[in-house]
Design goal:
By secondary structure, this protein is α+β, with helices and mostly antiparallel strands. The chain contains 11 helices and 16 strands. It has one domain: Chorismate synthase AroC (Chorismate synthase, AroC fold, 4-Layer Sandwich), CATH 3.60.150.
């Protein structure tokens, strides 16, 4: 299995990640990892933190001369903002309370209060620092490595913003080519220029009023071979694994696969993808993809399409009502430097999480201690599909 774990706090010295389960012999390009890290930092409506950090993933182990060794890969991403927080976030020495930037007024919608109660912590900064979406930088680095494995098997993954702040009223429905043609550096990674202009105006209004905005991003993966995942056990169903991966992204409150929300209100004849056979290609095809490329927890060869529904960020400059955890008196929620919106960034994190799950499913299906062995098994399965 491909597994990874991350460590580090938002204003700590660095973020770290350890990734295991990749085969030996995979060529890794560090510039590709750093490009995804930059993409995560971009997007209109991001906060001042993005101007401080210049994320770069240092590979500490598991790679030699540009190729994976089959052993655990250790990654480190330095927090440039650490210099401004070295006393507050020191791991050894205690500091005086007035210099510790204690958090006593929890933010509605954040992990502050629930985490403080769970771990019996009177300074909610101990919760805030780890619950911060800054942690997702480490996920993106791991996901970028997973993408490079998937690329060896012709799998591509992209994301785009299909709705922000309720604009457009109906989320965008776009084909792969339109998504792939979105220029790098587009303010909100949205393919519809008119909708994007309206989104930008909304973000400006929210900035003026001290508010935040949520939205919907879509992650699309093409050339996923039929047969990834399994119907045999609840925890091996690929749709469940993908949904959990996207739901784990901070502020994501719902996940939809294909037309998951819409098919609940139509008849079966309008909900399912009829099956045809292409004699030239020698493969089964579907002319629609309402299922989002997954049937019975297994990929069916169509594009895998998932949507993440992101709530507005919980840190508002116009603070909401809260309670001081010590005095129990009504108070305004604490304010931490934050974004107005981060839907485009959440899409990049979504790409990473989808890539990690699909890479795990590929290795589960084709095994192999090396990329070469995995490719031989893959090619044998391609022939099996043609003979089916």
């Amino acid at each position: 299995m491909v597994t990874f774990t991350t460590g580090g706090e938002s204003h700590g010295k660095s973020l770290v990640a350890i990734m295991q389960g990749l085969p030996a012999g995979l060529p890794l390009q560090t510039e590709v990892i750093d490009r995804d890290l930059r993409r995560r930092q971009q997007g209109y409506g991001r906060g001042a933190r993005m101007k401080i950090e210049q994320d770069h993933a240092q590979i500490l182990s598991g790679v030699r001369h540009g190729f994976t060794l089959g052993s655990p890969i250790a990654l480190l991403i330095e927090n440039k903002d650490w210099t401004n927080w070295s006393e507050v976030m020191a791991s050894a020495e205690a500091v005086e309370t007035q210099h510790a930037r204690e958090l006593k007024r929890p933010r509605p919608g954040h992990a502050d209060l629930a985490g403080g109660m769970k771990f019996d912590m009177r300074d909610l900064r101990n919760v805030l620092e780890r619950a911060s979406a800054r942690e997702t930088a480490a996920r993106v680095a791991c996901g970028s490595i997973a993408k490079q494995l998937l690329h060896k098997f012709h799998v591509e993954i992209r994301s785009h913003v299909i709705q922000l702040g309720g604009v457009p009223e109906i989320p965008l429905e776009l084909e792969w080519d339109a998504i792939a043609s979105i220029p790098d550096g587009t303010p909100l990674n949205c393919a519809d220029d008119s909708a994007q202009e309206q989104m930008i105006a909304l973000i400006g209004d929210a900035k003026t009023t001290g508010d935040t905005l949520g939205g919907v991003f879509e992650v699309v993966s093409r050339r996923c071979i039929p047969g990834l995942g399994s119907h045999t056990s609840w925890d091996r169903k690929l749709d469940g694994r993908l949904a959990q991966a996207l739901m784990s992204i901070p502020a994501v409150k719902a996940v939809s696969i294909g037309q998951g929300l819409e098919v609940c209100s139509v008849s079966g004849s309008q909900a399912h993808d009829e099956i045809f056979y292409d004699n030239d290609l020698r493969q089964f095809i579907r002319k629609t993809n309402r299922a989002g490329g997954l049937e019975g927890g297994i990929t069916n060869g169509e594009e895998v399409r998932l949507r993440g529904y992101m709530k507005p960020i919980s840190t508002l400059r116009r603070s909401l009502s809260s309670v001081h955890i010590d005095t129990k008196q009504e108070a305004r929620a604490a304010f931490e430097r934050s974004d107005i919106t981060a839907v485009p960034a959440a899409g990049v994190v979504g790409e990473a999480m989808v890539a990690l799950v699909l890479a795990d499913a590929m290795i589960e299906k084709f095994g192999g201690d090396s990329v070469g062995e995995m490719q031989r098994n893959f090619n044998g399965y391609l022939q099996q599909l043609k003979d089916y």
